[in-house]
Amino acid sequence: MTDLSSALHLAAPEAALAAGGLVLLLTGAFIGEKSARLISGLSVLLLFVVAALTAVGPLGSAFNGAYVADPLAVYGKVVIFLSAAVAIVLGDGWMHRTRIAKFEYPILIVLASAGMGMMASSGDLISLYIGIELHSLALYVLAAFHRDNLKASEAGLKYFVLGALSSGLLLYGASLIYGFAGSMRFEDIAAFATANPGPGLIFGLVFLICGLAFKVSAAPFHMWTPDVYEGAPTPVVALFATAPKVAAMVLIVRVLIEGFGVAHAQWAQVIILISLISFAVGSFGGLMQKDIQRLLAYSSIINIGYALLGVAAGTEAGVQATLMFMTLYVIDQFGFFAVLLSLSRNGRPIRKIADLAGLKKDRPLMAVALTILSLSAVGIPPMSGFWGKFFVFGAAADAGYWMAGVAGLVASVVAGFYYLRIIKVMWFDAAETEVATDKSPLEAKWVALAAAAFCFPLVIVALTWLEPLTRAAASGVGAG
Fold this sequence. Notes:
Its main location: membrane. By secondary structure, the protein is an all-alpha fold.
């Protein structure tokens, strides 16, 4: 009984989110749609409380190693839960402005957060799969949340079908790994790989990597990303671009470095190849886009390529660079989507790059914020995006993958064109009509301004010295 209570204490964050989600669901069912704002507020409060408890909670493993609470999991879950809370805040204003307020929206995010937390704490292949499916089921519904919109329904269907395909690849790889290693636990798999590094185990790992690459929308497993980003509601896309990617990246670090660290030379080649393809698809594919959300989809593809370079290094510096890059990436993405949610033209949300024309005159503060965020995304020093890429490329070069780092720099230059085009349209093109014709939600403005403020170097320098980040990276390579 003591062991069970200790295990439940370790898994308290996910248990609290699951129980809280069910209580909120019952509350919404009894009160009705008018409870949407109340449910949103309670969901945000729940996520903040769980994030705080996670940060100071106990460390250890439970359920025979299937659940791991270590510094890597703690850091990832704090970022995930806070990101989910911001997504609910952005979505609440959007739902009331579009008059489709539904109390299920924040509840789905809470339940998805429980799955993402499970992903970050996975200690074996079964908990890995449970976490992925738990958060994916909620995300499928969120993608089609605006069910009266044809594009949203199409986005949800595409995400569901391709998600099922990726789950099949992941399960096939997991079954091969279990068949050769005889265990589901990452620790046992690592021990077996050390003694018997055979091609069958690597073959299964490649399939597992393919399934995980889908979750982070890395090329060539990115097929769903542009269409889902374009069709899903804007606050839902803001969630897709942030928390699930952090969860999947933490999971990739845990699987590859903790479970298959001895086979680094083999899987690093696959990760480098995925990074290079992501560079090409993300940089050149974004050049032709006119829809902002679709453009941000290609931006996410190239940025995941950068993050994977740190994973490919297989070192503590590489893991730390990846975690730092993903944290800064999340802040940038929330800034972009918050700007979009704070703007409208003739009562309709801004979706096209051309719609940003004249923004410097109508919304100068938002124009400045979007300019800062764009320069950060390009990687212009001394913005946060520059430091994220600097540490990732440095870790890759130290590990001997300097050619991949050079390819990333070239891709960054190419991708800089579409960010600079946004700046050019805002500051130099004349608007045909007023940019803003209705009252914009204050929460979106504050998120946009906060994200832009975080892009400045003083905060980023402080971030590099954060002890939780260092301990998370050490834990990721087995030094914690």
